[in-house]
From TrEMBL:
Pfam families: ChlI, Mg_chelatase, Mg_chelatase_C. Keywords: ATP-binding, Nucleotide-binding. Coiled coil: none annotated. Residues 213-396 form the AAA+ ATPase domain. It comes from Pedobacter punctiformis. InterPro entries: AAA+_ATPase (IPR003593), CHLI-like (IPR045006), MCM_dom (IPR001208), Mg_chelat-rel (IPR004482), Mg_chelat-rel_C (IPR025158), Mg_chelatse_chII-like_cat_dom (IPR000523), P-loop_NTPase (IPR027417), Ribosomal_Su5_D2-typ_SF (IPR020568). The lineage of its organism: Bacteria, Pseudomonadati, Bacteroidota, Sphingobacteriia, Sphingobacteriales. The keyword ATP-binding applies. The keyword Ribonucleoprotein does not apply. This is YifB family Mg chelatase-like AAA ATPase. Belongs to the Mg-chelatase subunits D/I family. ComM subfamily.
Length: 512
């Protein structure tokens, strides 16, 4: 007897419908076809044990399982439940009437329990697009699938529950999640706050500018100056995710298996901080079975690279294209996948190996030329993609001991949102252009017009401070963001002057 059940395979952040065809006939062997990997091939032992533990029999006949389309490689253990139900239906132990109406996915334990899977959200979206009635999946993943309207999501814990459902002995109750209510419930609920930071008002101002214009930023300062503490609080002043961004971000984390059972929808911007020993594949994504990397997990959020010069140069260089294109394409011989990667890069570094170059109190012990060599670990093309270079100095005791209340993230975020609204209006007729950091050189000339006095100031600064040519556009972009924060229609002299101060690493002699 031939029976079909339905599941899905995830490629990139999208899913493809997989038909699990099970045929039982005379014979005594078990065949798995349709380009299965080892995890899929090994499903026989898990399926057999789970079926027997649930009180049913494994047929001792020829069983052929085909995973169609047969030219696409099937990976992972999520097909166990589809295969088990297909075998039971093909052997006449359960009715096959309703199987065509459901996606069935889940990994089976030997005792019949069902383990979680990856990519439940894109699979649920695919099931809805294919007009299936419901999606039966592990209970740990049901909330992320339930946010998809137009399809019933049934969370199950054991194979016996699924069998009872198809035998109509015990109905399953669909999980309901109010997507908008879930979205609004935790929006803006951050663990950290800028009110926790004592002093560092100039650094807070720089991060406010970075958040308002979507600019990448690098923090340079000695150990213990507060670089990491400040970076952790940057997501709290970014505009809240809208519903589309929340769904897009949740989808990526679902594919990577990073969502907890309690999460249905990501409502705060992600913050990713990989260790400097990370590989280039782990950062951008890929591998034998391609998975999203850290830059994609930081999509719509912040990627923080602490101690930037300690990262391998090859790791840093692979970020250059994603920083420009805001997506990453992973190409293999048989297929290619694409992951979104629109993130804000925040990097921090010591100014030298000992950490105390330019320190107001401690003396740098590095040999001549060592500081420049240390900074040269970061390539010019990468620095070219970082708009703000901010020097962080240590906080003195009086500021640390002060009981004066500092500004909360909520107040700063309100100003950032207002500036972003100005930019949304400015770029409303430009596709894929949403904030100042994304402007092309041509757009900079059009939007960031400055007066003759401004041109003179910029020329003088570039000559006297020895600013590089690549700093020109960056200064204008940041100045435009500062003007937006001030509610100014034009880029004024004070906006340009403040912007020039954020190009530390471009100054001749800074590290000599």
């Amino acid at each position: 007897m031939l029976v079909k059940t339905y599941g899905s395979a995830v490629f990139g952040v999208d899913a493809l419908t997989i038909t699990v065809e099970v045929s039982i006939s005379a014979g005594n062997k078990y065949y798995m076809v349709g380009l299965p990997d080892n995890a899929v091939r090994e499903s026989l032992q898990r399926v057999e044990s789970a079926i027997q533990t649930s009180g049913y029999r494994m047929p001792r006949q020829k069983i052929v399982v085909n995973l169609a389309p047969a030219d696409i490689r099937k990976e992972g253990s999520a097909y166990d439940l589809s295969i088990a139900i297909g075998i039971l239906a093909a052997s006449g132990q359960i009715p096959a009437d309703d199987l065509e109406s459901y996606f069935i996915m889940g990994e089976l334990s030997l005792d019949g329990n069902i383990q979680p899977i990856k990519g439940a959200l894109p699979i649920a979206i695919q099931a809805r697009n294919e007009h299936f009635k419901g999606f039966i999946l592990p209970k740990q993943n049901v909330r992320e699938a339930a946010i998809v309207d137009g399809i019933e999501a049934y969370g199950v814990e054991t194979l016996a529950e699924v069998i009872a459902f198809f035998k109509k002995n015990s109905p399953l109750k669909p999980t309901k999640v109010n997507t908008r209510e879930e979205f609004l419930k935790n929006i803006g609920n951050y663990e950290h706050d800028f009110a926790d930071v004592k002093g560092q008002e100039n650094i807070k101002r720089a991060l406010e500018i970075a958040a308002a214009g979507g600019h990448n930023v690098i923090l340079i300062g000695p150990p213990g100056a507060g670089k990491t503490m400040l970076a952790k609080r940057l997501p709290t002043i970014l505009p809240p995710l809208n519903l589309y961004e929340a769904l897009e971000t949740t989808k990526i984390h679902s594919v990577a298996g990073k969502l907890s059972a309690a999460d249905a929808l990501m409502t705060i911007r992600p913050y990713r901080s990989p260790h400097h020993t990370i590989s280039d594949v782990a950062l951008v994504g890929g591998g034998i079975n391609p998975q999203p990397g850290e830059i994609s997990l930081a999509h719509n959020g912040v990627l923080f690279l602490d101690e930037l010069p300690e990262f391998k140069r090859t790791v840093l260089e692979v970020m250059r294209q994603p920083l420009e294109d805001r997506k990453v394409a992973i190409s293999r011989a048989r297929f290619s996948v694409e992951y979104p990667a629109s993130f804000m890069l925040v990097a921090s570094m010591n100014p030298c190996p000992c950490g105390f170059y330019n320190h107001p109190e401690k003396e740098c012990v590095c040999a001549p030329g060592v500081v420049q060599k240390y900074l040269s670990k970061i390539s010019g093309p990468l620095l070219d993609r970082i708009d703000l270079h901010v020097e962080v100095t240590p906080v003195n005791f009086s500021e640390l001991a002060s009981t004066r209340e500092t500004e909360k993230s909520e107040s700063i975020r309100a100003r950032v949102i207002k500036a972003r609204e100005i930019q949304d209006l400015r770029f409303e007729n430009h596709e894929n252009l949403h904030y100042n950091a994304q402007m092309s050189p041509k757009m900079v000339r059009k939007v960031c017009k400055i007066s003759d006095a401004g041109q003179t100031l910029l020329k003088t600064a570039m000559e006297k401070l020895g600013l590089s040519a690549r700093a020109y556009d960056r200064i204008l972009k940041v100045a435009r963001t500062i003007a937006d924060l001030a509610g100014s229609e034009h880029v004024e002299l004070e906006h340009l002057a403040e912007s020039i101060n954020y190009r530390s690493l471009d100054r001749d002699g800074w590290a000599r």
